[in-house]
Every structure is written in C-alpha cells, then in structure tokens.
Amino acid sequence: MNHKGSCLCNEVQFTVEGAFESFFLCHCDHCRKDTGSAHAASLFSTSAKLHWNHGEELIKVFKLPSTRHVKSFCGQCGSALPFADKEAGLLAVPAGSLNSPITIRPNAHIFMASKAEWDKDLGKVPELDGFPQVDKADTP
Questions:
Q1: I need a labelling partner for 35 at 20 to 30 A (CA). Which of 26, 53, 111, 119 fits?
Q2: pTM
Q3: CA distance 40 to 95
Q4: How many degrees, rounded to 5, is the angle at CA 24 between CA 22 and CA 30?
Q5: Which of 13, 28, 99 shows the shortest CA–CA distance to 68?
Q6: Is residue 102 a contact partner of residue 29, using CB atoms and an 8 Å limit?
Q7: pLDDT digit string, tens, across residues 89-134
C-alpha cells in the first residue's frame, strides 16, 4: 500500500510504500511540546520505505539530546514530517502529515502518566464543525 503526504505549505512531498504496523497517541512531555497539543499521533513501520518526492532540502531534524525523541519538520512552514531512524530500523510518520486515508486505528494512548492536566474527559467537550461564534464583547 502507498501513502502520500506533504507539509502544510506543500513544498515537501513524500510517499510511504508499505504498511504501518502500529499507531500510537503519545502524551509524553516531549510530544506535547513539539506538537503544541495534547498528544502526537504517529504511525510506525519496520518495513515501509520513505521516498521524498519534492522539497527534501527543506527538511530539518531536531534530536532532543539524551533521549530517543526526534522531530523532523519542514524548514519553511514547520509542519511535522516523517523520520526514518536507520539505526533502529523504524519509520515514524506523523498521522496528520498524510494526505491519503489511514485504515489503521490507534493501538493505544501511551505515556498517560505524563499527560496534560487539561487532557481529561475531552469526549465531553462540545464538538463544532468550524470556528465558534465569538461575541466581540467576549474578547479582551
């Protein structure tokens, strides 16, 4: 199976050839910091191959010292991008970077002991299809 993906500005484009074996929602401190969100959503494969179709020269990689945490991103728009860890033989792909549908569901939420304090009972938060209506009197 092939998956196509890109960054937000579409200057970096890639193809992943092969299947994903796992899909984790990681709530660790590092993933929360580098996504600015409650968790990272990453797909993993030990056999899939990553091909950069366009913009490979724009890719930046940050490895957090003394950890296994790596973030690959577009140097132009900052979007998260796949990272092939050749030493570990593992491809990590941010789920949101894919343009093609993902058929695999997340296997688990991981590092729940370090999740954000506000990341509780989010299923009870109202869901909207777009921006909320904001009354100008409600804004500072």
A1: 53
A2: 0.88
A3: 9
A4: 135
A5: 28
A6: no
A7: 999 999 999 999 999 999 999 999 999 999 988 889 989 899 888 7
